[in-house]
Amino acid sequence: MLKNAYQGINTAGDKVEYSDDGIEILQSKHITSGVISFEETRMLNKEKYPEYFPKYVPTIGDILFANIGTIGPSIVVTTSKEFLVAWNILKMTPKNAKSSKFIQLLLQKLNSRHFFDKITTGNATKFVNKDAMLGIDLLVPSIYEQSKISEFFLSLDDTITLHQRIYKFGLCT
Q1: Looking at the record's lineage, which domain of life comes first (predicted)?
Q2: Looking at domain 2-138, which CATH architecture does it have?
Q3: In the sheet that 63-68 helps form, which strands lie side by side, from edge to edge?
C-alpha cells in the first residue's frame, strides 16, 4: 500500500541551524487544522543541508501524519510548493497516488476511534513509531472503489462546509 515512509528531520539531534530565508519546515502544528498552514514556520538553508533533499520533501499525493506529541491529524499534500517535514511528522508515499485520500480517510477514522492511543509509546512525549504505523492491517478495496469512496466523502465534506457557511452567515431562513 505504501511505497515508503520517512520520519521527518530530527532537527534537535542533527543540530539544525535555522535561517531567515530558505525552505520552510512544517511541524505537526502546521497540519492539525485539516489544511497545510505555512504560518510561523522555520526556514532551512537548502545549500547547507543538501542531504535532506529530496528525502524529507513531500510531493503531491504524499500523506503527512502527526505521530509525535500531537498524534492523529493527517493530510494529503496537494501543493507543489517545496517544503520539508520535521521530526513530528511521518511522511508516507502510497504505491498508487489514487490511494492517498482513501488512506487518509482511514487514518482519520482510526484517529476518531482513538486507535492510536493503543499503540502510543513514550513517557514525557507520546508517539506512534513508524514501524507501528506500517504494521497496521487495513482492509482496502480496489483502486477504482477507493477513488469512488474518496470522491463521495470529499463531496460530503464540501456539502457540510457549504451548509456551515450558510448557517454561519445567516443565509438560511
Answers
A1: Bacteria
A2: Alpha-Beta Complex (3.90)
A3: 2-7, 89-94, 63-68, 70-76
| Residue in the structure block whose three cell numbers are 497516488 | 97
**What is d(CA 124, CA 22) in angstroms, rounded to the nearest whole number?**
32
Taking the C-alpha atoms of residue 140 and residue 162, their distance in angstroms, rounded to an integer, is 30
Q: pLDDT tens digits, residue range 147-169?
A: 888 889 889 988 998 888 888 88
The full set of domain ranges for the chain reads 2-138, 141-173
pLDDT (tens digit, 9 = 90+) per residue, 75-124? 999 999 999 999 999 999 999 888 899 999 999 999 999 999 999 999 98
135 CB contacts (<8 Å, ≥6 apart)?
none
Q: Which three cell numbers stand for residue 31?
A: 497540519
Cβ atoms of 87 and 153 within 8 Å: the answer is no
Helix then strand then coil, in percent of the chain rounded to 5, is 35, 25, 45
Count other Cβ atoms within 10 Å, centred on residue 76.
21
The DSSP call for residue 80 is -
